[in-house]
Amino acid sequence: MIRIVIADDEELIRGALVALLSLETDIEVVADVSDGRAAVAAATTHRPEVVLLDLEMPHLDGIDAAEQLGSTTACRTIIVTRHARPGTLKRALAAQVSGFVPKSTPASKLASIIRSVASGERYIDVQLAAAALMEAESPLTDRETDVLRLTRAGLSTKDIARTLTLAHGTVRNHLSSAMAKLHSESRITAATVAHDNGWI
Question: Is 90 exceeded by the pLDDT of residue 195?
Answer without folding.
Answer: no
